Amino acid sequence: MGATQPGSRLRIQLTINHRSGSFPSRAIEGVVFGVPVPVASLPDVVQGKLWAATDTSRRSSKRAKDEADLVRICESHPQVLSLIPPGTFARIDELRGR
Question: Is residue 17 scored above 90 in pLDDT?
Fold first, then answer.
């Protein structure tokens, strides 16, 4: 479910998933459009993307986007490579070999 306000650049997407119930307890402070807000920690973002990218009940195009997001995250933050099981995504395995 999403939320928007006419004329605002802010788009909020809410996902209710029992698996991510512990994420808020590990949230860190971020700044969105100049406003301090709690945001998911990097390991939690990776875990959420991993769940989404491997969920075969989701559309293939959505899973491909989540996989691409994971690749971008791993390129910028190689320390999270260890959070993704080897053999899950070929493009991420390529990053491990560098």
Answer: no
CA 58: distance to chain centroid? 15
∠ Cα 87 75 67 (to 5°) = 50
Measured between alpha carbons, how far is 56 from 17 in angstroms, rounded to an integer? Answer: 16
pTM (two decimals) = 0.82
